[in-house]
Specification:
about 450 residues, alpha+beta, FAD/NAD(P)-binding domain, D-Amino Acid Oxidase, Chain A, domain 2, 8-stranded mixed β-sheet, 9 helices, about 20% helix, elongated, FAD-dep_OxRdtase, oxidoreductase
């Protein structure tokens, strides 16, 4: 049975934190918004499987600008957004392990311009921050004090709740299977894995709107194809994580030459440790739920889908952290994998599509989607309505073709980047379906040290 669902100004495809933020901003600005989520619960593939870290040290220039523009929102959310603190102190301790000397200097330089600059610390201070470290496993250490834990679920639910409160609609179990533009409006046909929680058990429904926002994460290029837009060359990548219990006090163990006999650690003490990583980004470990979240920082290209952890990556996550600490893990509480989807240059794709009227992108946020969501959603909202970008994101015009565009398939877009000081520009037209508008965030190749741990 095919029935017509909500009509309005905007259809947002994808209910992860990016789509939820865009919907929140558009609905609060008075626009009629319907958000379509393919799964029964929004955010299950990426948002709900993140490392939950807010860091202004990660990402290229565009990502850092979006992150910094998001910090005030998370530090002091609008009234009614949430009743819990979204940010909490954490810090990141990055180690120079053998063979990563050049990476350490690059990391120190790139972290120097953060609001709370990264600082080199000696071994004594590194061991104060994380007593389980092996002194012989690293030569130097870099501390990034401004990194914060973020309550991802509270932030995500705040956006969804605020969207609804402003008159928007959230429909789950609504996978978009067709998109067509007729009579100046978009028509989206949906199907789903089961009954849509809000809309009932119909096998298919049709929703109409003046404009579509493609916030479909790993499926964004597929959604673009349904709309007749060229793909952005997005690549979904698997990121593996495990939750490992730390040996408690009284379970001391000897580990390797020169490390001696070290005790276990109380969960309350572990909770105060910073995230520990190496400057080559081959692993990270972060206190989580009375245990340690470990990851090998893998980024394996995979098709869009419900990804599962690979046994080898699980083993590497444990092995690499054990190699720099006195800890030995004897069991894992949980293991999982999530998706992080990026274009080739690791810069988000934000704004109206240059070739398809009324079709816009909010995709390719990679491992930075949580920390950039407030500013990314705000930027998308002003770009699709002709408003003024936030002051921190005001930019000049793009100047040169996208690096590497020639290597993309013939049907891929040749989007334009901006200088490193630029993020966006205001485009002409105030209608959400304005055909003359086109925008992307600034794009340029990030350094190898800019990637999110």
């Amino acid at each position: 049975m095919n029935r017509t669902g909500e009509t309005g100004e905007f259809l947002i495809v994808g209910g992860g934190i990016a789509g939820a933020s865009a919907g929140w901003h558009l609905a609060r600005a008075g626009h009629r918004v319907t958000l379509l989520e393919a799964e029964r619960t929004p955010g299950v593939h990426s948002t709900g499987r993140s490392s939950a870290l807010f860091s202004e040290y990660f990402g290229n220039t565009a990502v850092r600008a979006l992150t910094r523009a998001s910090r005030d929102f998370y530090a002091a959310p609008p009234p009614g957004f949430t009743d819990v603190a979204l940010l909490a102190p954490r810090g990141v301790l990055a180690l120079e392990t053998p063979g990563t000397e050049a990476g350490f200097e690059e990391a120190r330089e790139s972290g120097a311009d953060a609001p709370e600059p990264a600082v080199e610390v000696d071994a004594v201070r590194a061991l104060e921050l994380c007593p389980a470290l092996r002194p012989d496993a690293f030569r130097r250490a870099l501390y990034k004090p401004g990194a914060r834990d973020i309550d991802v679920d509270a932030a995500h639910q705040g956006f969804l709740r605020g969207l609804r409160a402003a008159g928007g609609t959230v429909v789950t179990g609504a996978r978009v299977v067709a998109l067509a533009r007729r009579g100046g409006r978009w028509h989206a046909t949906t199907a789903g894995p089961g009954p849509a929680r809000r809309e009932g058990p119909e096998a298919a429904r049709e929703f109409t709107a003046e404009a579509v926002v493609n916030a479909a994460g790993a499926w964004a290029d597929q959604v673009a194809g349904l709309a007749g837009a060229r793909p952005a060359g997005l690549v979904p990548r698997r990121r593996t994580a495990v939750l490992a219990a730390v040996p408690p006090p009284g379970n001391g163990q000897a580990h390797g030459p020169g490390t001696g006999h070290r005790p276990g650690y109380a969960a309350a003490d572990v909770a105060r440790w910073p995230m520990v990583t190496d400057v080559a980004d081959t692993f990270y470990a972060k206190p989580e739920s009375g245990a340690l979240l470990l990851s090998p920082a893998d980024a394996t290209p995979v098709p869009p889908g419900d990804v599962r952890p690979d046994d080898l990556d699980v083993a590497l996550a444990v092995e690499r952290f054990e190699a720099v600490t006195t800890l030995k893990f004897h069991g894992l509480r949980a293991r999982w994998a999530g998706l992080r989807t990026s274009p080739p240059d690791d810069t988000p794709v934000i704004g109206p599509d240059p070739g398809v009227p009324g079709f816009s992108w909010l995709a390719g946020l990679g491992g930075y989607g949580i920390q950039t969501a407030p500013a990314a959603g705000a930027l998308l909202a002003v770009l699709v309505t002709g408003g003024e970008p936030p002051p921190a994101l005001t930019a000049l015009a793009p100047r040169t073709p996208l690096p590497g565009a020639a290597e993309l398939p013939p049907h891929c877009p040749t989007q334009t980047p901006v200088e490193s000081s630029e993020i966006c520009r205001k485009r002409p037209g105030s209608s959400p379906a304005a055909e003359s508008t086109t925008a992307r965030t600034g794009r340029w190749p990030p350094s190898s040290r800019s990637r999110r741990t």
